[in-house]
Amino acid sequence: MVPLWTGLKPERIGMNERKQYPIEWDNEMKAYFFWDEAEEKQGYWENRDDAEIAYEEYSFELLGYDAFGYYHD
Cα–Cα distance between 34 and 42 in angstroms, integer? Predict the structure, then answer.
């Protein structure tokens, strides 16, 4: 992996390596998407709000917790 401080752009930095919210913009598709737990792109949305809602629903259904980290049965 290329350290970000080098100024060199890494080929791909996975969600777990970035430790950031997994919603990103795809220039080619001109849409937002999010990374799943397998670090694969999921869906495409025209705006970030829709992508955030989809990510919250995905996290809740798959993992049992919401975007804020609260566990739900």
Answer: 5
Which residue, 13, 14, 38, 44, is CA-closest to 26?
44
Burial class of residue 22 (count of CB atoms within 10 Å of its CB; 0-12, 13-18, 19+):
buried
Find all residues with CB under 8 Å of 59, minimum gap 6, and list them.
Answer: 65, 66, 67
Classified as helix, coil or strand, 21 is coil
Q: Quick: pLDDT tens for 20-67.
A: 678 999 999 999 999 888 889 999 999 999 999 999 888 888 777 655
Give the span between the Cα atoms of 8 and 33, in whole angstroms. 24
Please return the burial class of 51, using the count of CB atoms within 10 Å of its CB with bins 0-12, 13-18 and 19+.
buried
Reported pTM: 0.60
E strands, 4-59, in order: 23-26, 31-35, 41-45
